[in-house]
From TrEMBL:
It is found in: Cell membrane. This is Diacylglycerol kinase family protein. Gene3D superfamilies: 1.10.287.3610. Keywords: ATP-binding, Cell membrane, Kinase, Lipid biosynthesis, Lipid metabolism, Magnesium, Membrane, Metal-binding, Nucleotide-binding, Phospholipid biosynthesis, Phospholipid metabolism, Transferase, Transmembrane, Transmembrane helix.
């Protein structure tokens, strides 16, 4: 396989991934909320001038939640395609996928609190 053919395939794959990311943001209300919250904490990071390590944890946490939301949306779409009507097992699968997002959101919130509570408290000193 030539390098040109290999690299053009990778560029196309990145294009598909970008298209999927845009579709997630446009069509999934929960992803819209998470993107909004991500923008807020990024703004807070600039405002409070958080450290590089804090930036890494914050961005990793935001990326984890957004990735989990995307995977949850994919699981729900597949489940709805396979079985459009309510089904107990499909409901269980969707609940598990939503639970994974909830785990990510809980731990991201804890990371946010660890980062920002000291900065917020310092405003009142």
């Amino acid at each position: 396989m030539s390098f040109l053919k290999f690299s053009s395939g990778r560029v196309r794959a990145v294009g598909y991934a970008f298209k999927g990311m845009v579709a997630l943001i446009r069509r999934e209300p929960s992803v819209k909320v998470q993107v909004f919250l991500t923008v807020l904490v990024i703004a807070a990071g600039f405002y409070f001038e958080i450290t590089a390590t804090q930036w890494m944890f914050q961005l990793l946490a935001a990326g984890l939640v957004l990735s989990a939301e995307g995977l949850n949306s994919a699981v729900e779409a597949i489940a709805d395609f396979i079985h459009p009507d309510y089904h107990l097992k499909i409901g269980h699968i969707k609940d598990i996928a939503a639970g994974a997002v909830f785990f990510a959101a809980i731990f991201s919130t804890i990371i946010g609190l660890i980062i920002y509570v000291p900065y917020i408290l310092a405003l009142f000193d």
